[in-house]
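Changelog entry: the Transposase IS200-like domain-containing protein record was regenerated in this release. Current contents:
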Amino acid sequence: MAGTDRLLLADVPHHVLRKARKGEQVFHDKADYRHFISQIRDLRHTYQVEVHAWTLLPDRFHMVATPYGNPDNLGVFIKSLTCRASLRRRGLYGQKSPWEARFRASPVEPGNWLMACISYVERLPVEQNLASSAYHYQNSSYRMRLGKTDQYWLDDPEEYARLGDDIPERANAFRTYMRNGLDEKEVEMINTALYRNRLTGSQRFVEFVYKKYGILVLNRGPGRPRRKKNPDDFSNDNNR
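Regenerated structure tokens:
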């Protein structure tokens, strides 16, 4: 598999990035952000995509999502989102589409790596110096995850649902995970896999993809996120 080829897999989580061309800004004000978030909420049902996490930055967005049935649903979903943002931009500002030609996507191993990607995406505003904490950034899924919004429509993966019996219990466990953060090797793996359209996960995940889908993806990087030293251990049987 060439490093520039995009691999989409049915029933597997993906870390997705769609960027604007250099120097372009996608979201100009709060209304632009709110419009895009509402489109994520509504269109995920249309295209049979579960959305686990997202963060909107001024010139791009990251998302963790799983397509069901047809893996191409994810691509159509992302295209529809960006087209609607472009139409709004043209209507309000008279500006053409800001997006790069292609989006990037990395299939993510369920278990620890999926939880690491969710944390990575929701911590981006802090890493980009856009907010002092993930909680204080309005344009990501983190505040919803904590139950601080009027509606809760995130599609929680099994790994996250196991953290507690209700939203507050799960939020408390994930808040601790976010405070612990990711180490440099985990971040390197996530970044490299995303920008090269490779797999985010262990060698076992590489072997799983080859056996199930007949696709060999050669990854380089750490084998798995470190195990947690507290009860909030997100590993499952696939990662042990």
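The longest helix spans residues 72-93.
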